[in-house]
Amino acid sequence: MNTGWIILIIIVALAAYAVFIYNRLVTNRQMMQEGWSGIDVQLKRRTDLIPNLMETVKGYMGHERETLEAVTSARTAIQSAGDAGPAERSKLEGALSGALGRLFAVAEAYPDLKANTTFLEFQGALQKVEDEIQLSRRYYNGSVRNMNVAVESFPSNIVANMFGFMKGEYFELDNEGDRAVPQVKFN
Known about the structure:
Blueprint: H1 3-58, H2 65-81, H3 86-107, H4 111-115, H5 117-152, H6 156-163
Helix pairs in contact: 1-2, 1-5, 1-6, 2-3
């Protein structure tokens, strides 16, 4: 075989491999965006539940203003965050989780509230949303891991750098206590 043909075959093989890597990077980026969208949807669902929960709680624990205001201000901060990245959103969501945890802890002192059907429904809905957030977080972080591995691994890092693919940010909670899903239990 002629040297020219060998060089041409090598160039075509390298180009085909570069296209394969590029397509894999695009797939990883799309999965990462899909994962973030899933988290965003679940966080919005949780944020939408809060006003109804707060209205139910206000009637029973009106003098617990500080706790109620903490939940309200955390929710407002999340809504004003807009398109904040995973690091900023996880910080804000951690604050909301902490405020909700304090709200449910204070609610323990109100037997009538614990027995209120509306409150129990919101409590169950919130627990379901928290579980969905956890699942969405796992999916998103797995997608980020795949993207980061592809962006950092050789030879895909060459293609990633050529086309501007960037590593993703994990959705993590800063406070170790916020890592646990708030326990919503009433005896």
